[in-house]
Amino acid sequence: MRALIWIVVIVSAAVGLTLLARYNTGYVLLALPGYRIEVSFNLLLVLLAIGFIAVYAVVRVVAATVRLPRQVREYRVGRRREKARSTLLDALHEYFAGRYARAEKAAANSLELGEQAELSAVLAARAAHELRAFERRDAYLARAAAGDEVLRVVTEAELLLEERRFQEALNVLKQLPRKHTAALRLELRAQQQLRNWDQVLALVGELQKRNVFDATQAAQIRRYALAENLKRKALDAQALDEAWQKVPPNERTDGRVAAAAAQCFIALGGCAQAHRIIEDALEAGWDSELVGLYAEYEGGDALKRIERAEAWLKAHANDAALLLTLGRLCGERELWGKAQSYLEASIAIEPTYSAHLAAARLHERLGNADAARRHYRESLELALAQLKTVTGGRRRTPL
After folding, report:
1. Considering the domain boundaries, does residue 2 fall inside one?
2. Which of 157, 185, 193, 199 is deepest in the core (most CB within 10 A)?
3. Based on the domain organization, do 335 and 361 belong to the same domain?
4. Rounded mean pLDDT, 371-379
5. Which pLDDT score, from 0 to 100, does residue 77 have?
6. What sign results for the dihedral spanned by CA atoms 383, 388, 389, 390?
7. Predicted local distance difference test score (pLDDT) of residue 396
8. 281 and 351 together in one domain
């Protein structure tokens, strides 16, 4: 439709100009020294139009000729950029497909072409790392250093962590003036492996604020860090007490934390403190593994602990660990009948290595040699069965 309109307009203009020229009888007189030139006005208009078109064409040709080198350069740059992008996409495809040799080659080509140099260098470094070509990896990372510092630092730290070079990874992360979330997560991994539990606790809180961990995950990491931090103080009573005082009250009653603290205090002779820790934790929430520590130390006020444990027994009558603890405590106080009764009840509910061993020692003290041998044999069989369960699933590595 538009083409038809243009045709009509052009035809109409041509007809109009023809009619105008037909009725235009004017002329133009040019006077030059020695010459007089008389030209029809219509012809002059035609000549001027032709002259304008010729001049315009010449100007366009000259301009195109001047622009030609620049256009050629832009064309070549565009082709190079397009090739670099295509090569980088190929490298990404090969990397995520697990073809790391091809990915490294494509990323190296993209790097040489100069498109997205930092991304190409990092991708080539990751591919080289997967191929365990660490020298090439470090060379690529060095080339990436001239670009995005954060990209290079985070990548290098992550690869060092995979290589189990934890302190070096921390040193690399220190290059960032203000760490973002990914860097903090990498720092947490490094601090955990280096067993720097104070730093771990600080990092967990920061990452929880950034919604990296939910409350359950953060609490689990905090409990483990607190327990391990207490274990590191097991050789210094003052340091252990200071560390325990720094534990938040709501986390002192956690089973893992309380068990670690109790074991450390028992090792340093602070059994009264250990028993209070266990009692407070069990009152807050029952833990069968924790109650087993209640009879670890032979000494102190065993009768008071028996009374406390028997009070717990009212609510946990079928807890084998609690019955074993009562059996051991009664044996310590030479309450032979009650000790034997509690141990037999524990074995009836859940026969364990520890229960049979405690029963064997009790019968040995009572002079029941046959019963002691039987329980020792049962204890040994359970221990061997447990060891077989742990090691049975492991594959043997051929020599």
Report:
1. no
2. 157
3. yes
4. 88
5. 64
6. positive
7. 43
8. no
Domain boundary among 114, 130, 147: 147
Predicted local confidence at residue 398, as pLDDT: 37
Q: Which domain-ending residue is among 297, 326, 356?
A: 297
CB distance 293 to 258 below 8 Å: no
- Cα–Cα distance, 294 to 326 (Å, whole number): 9
292/350 same-domain check: no
Look at residue 39 and give its three-state secondary structure: strand
Summarize pLDDT for 225-279 with one digit per residue, the tens. 888 888 888 888 888 888 888 888 888 888 888 888 888 888 888 888 888 888 8
In degrees, rounded to 5, the angle at the alpha carbon of residue 320 between the alpha carbons of residues 316 and 321 is 90
CA 350, distance to chain mean position in Å, is 41
Distant-in-sequence contacts of 108-114, Cβ < 8 A, 24+ apart: 108/140, 110/84, 110/85, 111/140, 111/143, 113/80, 113/81, 113/83, 113/84, 113/87, 114/80, 114/84
**CA separation for the pair 234, 241 (Å, rounded):** 10
In the block, tokens 């406390």 appear at: 308
- 200 C-beta neighbours (distance < 10 Å), count: 24
Rounded distance, CA 310 to CA 303, Å? 11
pTM of the model: 0.66
- 298, pLDDT greater than 70: no
d(CA 399, CA 394): 15
Angle at 283 between CA 278 and CA 284, to 5 degrees: 100
Secondary structure element (H or E) that encloses residue 361, with its range: helix 353-366
Q: Quick: pLDDT tens for 3-29.
A: 778 777 776 766 666 666 566 666 666
Q: Domain range spanning residue 311?
A: 305-388
* Residue type present at position 62: V
Four-residue CA torsion sign, 268, 272, 273, 276: positive
**CA 338, CA 330: separation in Å to the nearest integer?**
6
Sign of CA dihedral 297, 303, 305, 310: positive
Q: Which of 125, 171, 169, 180 is nearest to 147 (CA)?
A: 125
116-142: burial string, b at 16+ Cβ within 10 Å, e else: bbbbbbbbbbbbbbbeebeebbeebbe
The domain that holds 370 is classified in CATH as 1.25.40.10
